[in-house]
Amino acid sequence: MIGHLDIPIYLVGVAIGTIVSNFLFMPLLFLRMSITGLAAQALGAQSQQMLARAFMQPLLLALLTGLAMVLLRHPLIDLALWIVGGNVKVLEQARLFLDIHWLSTPEVLVNMALLVLLLGV
């Protein structure tokens, strides 16, 4: 949809915002890998307590990390866009995209934890 707008600044802003978001979310992918193995081991051992722990610890970590990113999103966005640099109008659009997109960080990380738990089980 954005690619059909008459001003390419919007598309470039979303592209920069997506790259910054991906760069920030990559270190959090350990949540996916850790939950899958632990959930599969707990299911194999038929231990509900191990399964609950394998889920609750990463879930809590995902929720706390997501909330921290929401609370610290303005300084993180400032730093990321300062590192990226570029046209002021493009960076305005990237800032707007990131400001809205990062509000969903807790939900994205919790969703990741839930889906990977199901995959491990």
Number of domains: 1
The N- to C-terminal Cα distance equals 37 Å
Rg, Å, rounded:
18 Å
According to DSSP, the number of beta strands is: 0
- What about the largest sheet? none
Shape assignment: elongated
Q: Helices and strands, in N-to-C order?
A: HHHHHH
Average per-residue pLDDT, rounded, comes to: 86
Provide the descriptors you would attach to this structure in a database record:
mainly alpha
In short:
The chain contains six helices and no strands. By secondary structure, the chain is an all-alpha fold.
Please describe the topology of this protein:
Elements lengths: L8 H17 L4 H15 L3 H24 L1 H12 L3 H14 L3 H16 L1
Helix pairs in contact: 1-5, 2-3, 2-6, 3-6, 4-5
